[in-house]
Design goal:
Layout: E1 5-10, E2 15-22, E3 26-34, H1 36-40, H2 47-69, E4 78-84, H3 88-105, E5 109-113, H4 114-125, E6 133-138, E7 143-150, E8 153-159, H5 165-175, H6 182-190, H7 215-230, H8 237-263, E9 267-271, H9 278-291, E10 294-296, H10 300-303, H11 307-318
Parallel strand pairs: 1-4, 4-5, 6-9, 9-10
Antiparallel strand pairs: 1-2, 2-3, 6-7, 7-8
The structure holds 5'-O-[(R)-(carboxyoxy)(hydroxy)phosphoryl]adenosine and zinc ion (ZN).
């Protein structure tokens, strides 16, 4: 089959990104303009600010992606874009831009689910990865266990009933004074702490479901900190970080390996911002080694939001003939 080039755009949260991806696996460029430094001042993403910043940089980001890939719009076969889930105002900036390009060039538009993008980052990292496999998607907004049955065919087997894993990291980090985004900071601080120092709760459901709940562990950490404060006791922040992280990693590991057993699958591909977490990687690798299950994860730059992962997902839809109408709307609550 002839090679296909996708120009892809991602703007669902606080990164404006454009990429050129060849045949779903080869990244020719992946430009990411992060707004993290701005949102840091507010301790989290401010939606209105995010939309405005996307508008300011999107044109330059797309031009840079084409330039770095050494191609022009004429060389592009289709335009891939995230249309959900995410912040509606932020999504609309990338989507309107992509639709404009599709209209003016006559190239097909391929709408992509952001979660599907995160999973697809693994196709870029692991050139011979093919479905079926289990994917654990852990990001700031989402926590899913997905059975990837084929390209673009998903069955969600478990999800969070309250906070996302990354959200719990960010909230706990803020409570122990680490700032935003908290995930990488807890990851680092936890290395100096004892993960068995404090026993934080692990939520389990009696209905045998593979769902998660992280609000309980988050509240337990906040209570622990408050109690210590009231008694004027010194808190070992590294122990809190390590013990909190262990509680999160423990349930993620249990549920994802249970999925492999019940579905008889031998590959786990982790995805999303929290897939960069060193404790999660180590725990899964260790257990995978014991159980003969292969653990895959993308490099950190492909774990957090980026357009290359969207380009990969768009490619696998495009070659199946799946394109989107030009009146495609943003869907902030889009399901996988
Ligand atoms: O995938 P992502 O960039 O955005 C969403 O789609 O949500 O994920 C961002 C999340 C943030 O909550 C951040 O704290 C978390 O990923 N994160 C980490 C690490 N690196 C990023 N969490 C734990 N450990 C890390 N090393
Ligand atoms: Zn994301």
């Amino acid at each position: 089959m002839e090679s296909k080039l996708i120009l892809s755009i991602e703007s669902s949260c606080d990164e404006t990104s454009a990429a050129v991806v060849k045949d779903g696996r080869e990244v020719l460029s992946n430009i990411i303009a992060s707004q993290i430094d701005t949102h840091k001042k507010f301790g989290g993403v401010v939606p209105e600010v995010a939309s405005r910043m996307h508008i300011e940089v999107i044109n330059g980001v797309v031009e840079e992606a084409l330039k770095e890939a050494n191609v022009t719009l004429d060389d592009i076969d289709a335009i891939g874009v995230t249309y959900g889930p995410g912040l509606v105002g932020a999504l609309l900036v990338g989507l309107q831009y992509a639709k404009g390009l599709a209209m003016s060039t006559g190239k097909p538009l391929v709408g992509v689910n952001h979660i599907e993008g995160h999973i697809s980052a693994n196709y870029i990292e692991h050139k011979d990865l093919k479905p079926p496999f289990v994917s654990l998607v852990v990001s700031g907004g989402h926590t899913f266990i997905v059975h990837v049955k084929d390209y673009g065919i998903y069955e969600v087997l478990g999800q969070t009933r309250d906070d996302a894993a990354g959200e719990a990291y960010d909230k706990v980090a803020r409570a122990i004074g680490l700032g935003y985004p908290g995930g990488p900071k807890i990851d680092k601080l936890a290395k100096e702490g004892d993960k068995f120092a404090i026993k934080f709760p692990r939520a389990k459901f009696n209905d045998g479901s593979l769902d998660f709940s992280f609000s309980g562990v988050k509240s337990a950490v906040l209570n622990y900190l408050n109690k210590a404060k009231m008694k004027d006791e010194e808190v070992n922040r590294a122990d809190v970080a390590a013990s909190f992280q262990e509680a999160i990693v423990d349930v993620l590991r249990n549920n994802v390996f249970k999925t492999c057993e019940t579905k008889n699958l031998d590959k786990i591909a982790i995805a999303g911002g929290v897939a960069s977490n060193s404790a999660l990687r180590e725990a899964l690798l260790e257990e995978g080694d014991k159980k003969g299950i292969k653990i895959l994860f993308p490099s950190p730059i492909l774990c957090t939001d980026n357009a290359a992962m969207i380009g990969s997902a768009a490619y696998f839809r495009f070659i199946k003939g799946e394109t989107s109408p030009l009146d495609l709307n943003a869907k902030p609550n889009l399901k996988l």
